[in-house]
Amino acid sequence: MTTQLGLEGMPKRLFSCTPSRLTSWLDCPRRYRMTYLDRPPPPKGPPWAHNTVGSAVHLALSRWWSEPLAKRTPATARALVERAWSTDGFADEAQALRYRGHAADMVARYVATLDPCEEPIGIERTVATRTEVLAISGRVDRVDRRGEELVVVDYKTGRAVLTADDARGSLALALYALACARTLRRSCMTVELHHLPTGRVARFDHTEESLARHLSRAEAIGAEAVAAAEALRAGGDPDELFPARPSRVCSWCDFVRACPVGLAAAGAPKKPWDGLAAEES
Ligand code: SF4
Prior knowledge:
The protein has 281 residues and is of the alpha/beta class. The chain folds into 3 domains: 15-44 and 217-266, no CATH class; 49-111, no CATH class; 122-216, Lambda Exonuclease, Chain A (Alpha-Beta Complex). The protein has 10 helices and 6 strands; from the N terminus they run βαααααβββααββααα. The protein is globular, with a radius of gyration of 20 Å.
């Protein structure tokens, strides 16, 4: 990690971060510390089955675009999900197999709505931008070109159905839009959440002002995180500098076993497959 030194007459060092690092600070400074600063980090809990689904779906959708045009079909999408699959987090082989089928159906339905000839500008594309205090980089699921504009596309596989408000309020999506514009040298104001389970698209068209608001929020978050890390290095109290912020998220936190506050908030422990979408009967 680089930090902002701010010494008189010396060039400032930027705080290098991803959008998810910044949102991690917002969600819970304690979890931020355990993820990014504690070395070695506390042991994580077992893998989550819903993350296995998300990873396989993302990987399949990324590989689908690498196929020759004639093979960009729903059948190929199914095969790619099966190839990317793992049984991590599932109760047993039978459950993993059923969910592999659901995921393959979901991705096949989704790609049937795409025009395989509309080659995206980027797939899993790393983009970056910087301000006077932040060096932001991250990987975007997909960058589309529509006319003269770029569009950030983020795939979602979770249970929650997303709205335009989610797209508007997403710090990560706004930062990706700014980073796409900077890296790919083309205007990028639109962000979209593609919710694969329902096929719904939540879209928001940013303005210069709304992007600037997100950017200044990112700078404020970065400044807080850097200040806390510096105070920690100077011998400050880790628990005071990085307070636990218990919430419903604690049940799903990888570090809950190392966090007494979160453990108390989490209630009954979740099983690794509890986050899976319910199966249709
Ligand atoms: S269990 Fe909750 S309070 Fe503890 S680190 Fe995780 S998110 Fe934060």
